[in-house]
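RECORD TYPE: inverse folding
INPUT: C-alpha cells
STRUCTURE:
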C-alpha cells in the first residue's frame, strides 16, 4: 500500500495541473521573437518585393494557406498584392494573430492563436482581401515573411432603399393602323419586304479557371515517451517508448510506439514489452485526447489493451523540440470488468522531434 501512495499523489498533482491547463486552453500563446523560423529571410523587404517573392514561393505559400484551412484565400490574396501595393504598418505588443505560417526544417507549418509579446513593435506589410462578404486582414512581417491572418471583419450589407409609390398607369393608347398600300392604275400593289432577322449569337464559353497549385502531403516526425505506469496496490512500472507520428490533419494525428515497461516495484508482476497505436485529437491548440490499442507482453503472458489518453502541450516553439504531458490508462480487453484491479494508470513526458 505504501509503495503506491507516491504514484497516487503524483497522479492527483497531474490531474490538477491538467485542469489548470484546460482552463487556459483558449488563451493565445505568446510570441516573443521573430526570425528564428522564417518563411523567407529578408533584411530589408520592400513593398515592391512582396509580389515577386510570392510568385517565386507560390507553391509553398499555397501549402501554408491549405494547412491553415483557408485554401480558397490564396488566389484572392495573390491577386490583391498584384493590383495594390501592401501598406506598411507596425504591430504593437498585445495584438493577436489568428494563425501564422512558418518553416521548420524546410517544411511549411502553421501556428495558431499567437499574441505578440515582444518589447517593441515589429514592422510588417498589411494586405486586406475582400472575399465572400468579409475582409481578411493579413500581416507579412518584413524580417521573416511569415504570412499571418490578423482578423476577419464582416462587410456590412447596404440597406435597401424604401419602396416608392408607383405612378398612376397611363390609359392604353391604340396603335395606329398601317395604311393600305397605294395602288396606281394598271400597277399591282407592292408590299414592302420585312427586314431580315439576324440569327441569335452563340453563348459565350465560361473562362477557363487556372489550375490550383497541388499541395504536398504533410510528413510525420519522431516521438519518444518517458513516464510511469502502476497498478493499484500491486506494482509500479517505468515507461519507455519511441515511435513515429503522422499528423494527417491540423487536429488529428496517428502515432505508433514500441518500447518497454520495466518493473520498478512489486512481486506479483513482471516487466513487459509494449507496442501501441494511438489516434490523437486536438480540439483546441492547448489540449488533446487520444485512444488506441496496444500489446502488453510479459515473459509469461501477453494481452491486448485498450488505451485512453488526455494531455496538454508544454510548448509549441517552431525553432526547437516540443514537449507534451500526458495521462494514460490502459486495461486488457478481457479484464475490463475489473479495471480497478488489473488496469494500469500513469503519466509521462512526450518529446516531439
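DESIGNED SEQUENCE:
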Amino acid at each position: 500500500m505504501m509503495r503506491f501512495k507516491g504514484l497516487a499523489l503524483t497522479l492527483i498533482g497531474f490531474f490538477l495541473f491538467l485542469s489548470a491547463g484546460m482552463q487556459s486552453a483558449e488563451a493565445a500563446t505568446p510570441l516573443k521573437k521573430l526570425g528564428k523560423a522564417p518563411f523567407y529571410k529578408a533584411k530589408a523587404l520592400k513593398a515592391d518585393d512582396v509580389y515577386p517573392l510570392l510568385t517565386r514561393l507560390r507553391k509553398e505559400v499555397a501549402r501554408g494557406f491549405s494547412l491553415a484551412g483557408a485554401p480558397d484565400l490564396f488566389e484572392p490574396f495573390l491577386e490583391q498584392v498584384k493590383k495594390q501595393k501592401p501598406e506598411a504598418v507596425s504591430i504593437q505588443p498585445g495584438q493577436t494573430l489568428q494563425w501564422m505560417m512558418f518553416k521548420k526544417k524546410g517544411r511549411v507549418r502553421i501556428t495558431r492563436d499567437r499574441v505578440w509579446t515582444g518589447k517593441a513593435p515589429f514592422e510588417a506589410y498589411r494586405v486586406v482581401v475582400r472575399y465572400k462578404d468579409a475582409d481578411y486582414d493579413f500581416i507579412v512581417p518584413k524580417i521573416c515573411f511569415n504570412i499571418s491572418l490578423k482578423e476577419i471583419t464582416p462587410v456590412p450589407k447596404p440597406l435597401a432603399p424604401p419602396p416608392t409609390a408607383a405612378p398612376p398607369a397611363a390609359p392604353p393608347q391604340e396603335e395606329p393602323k398601317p395604311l393600305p398600300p397605294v395602288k396606281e392604275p394598271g400597277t399591282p400593289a407592292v408590299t414592302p419586304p420585312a427586314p431580315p432577322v439576324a440569327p441569335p449569337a452563340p453563348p459565350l464559353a465560361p473562362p477557363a479557371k487556372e489550375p490550383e497549385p497541388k499541395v504536398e502531403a504533410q510528413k510525420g516526425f519522431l516521438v519518444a515517451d518517458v513516464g510511469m505506469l502502476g497498478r493499484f496496490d500491486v506494482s509500479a512500472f517505468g515507461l519507455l517508448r519511441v515511435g513515429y507520428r503522422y499528423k494527417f490533419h491540423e487536429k488529428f494525428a496517428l502515432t505508433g510506439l514500441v518500447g518497454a515497461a520495466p518493473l520498478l516495484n512489486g512481486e506479483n508482476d513482471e516487466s513487459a514489452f509494449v507496442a501501441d497505436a494511438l489516434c490523437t485529437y486536438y480540439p483546441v491548440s492547448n489540449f488533446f485526447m487520444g485512444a488506441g490499442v496496444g500489446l502488453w507482453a510479459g515473459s509469461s503472458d501477453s494481452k491486448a489493451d485498450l488505451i485512453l489518453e488526455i494531455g496538454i502541450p508544454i510548448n509549441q516553439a517552431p525553432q526547437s523540440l516540443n514537449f507534451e504531458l500526458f495521462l494514460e490508462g490502459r486495461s486488457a480487453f478481457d479484464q475490463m470488468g475489473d479495471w480497478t484491479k488489473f488496469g494500469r494508470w500513469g503519466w509521462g513526458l512526450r518529446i516531439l522531434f
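NOTES: Helices lie at 2-23, 47-56, 58-67, 74-83, 339-342.
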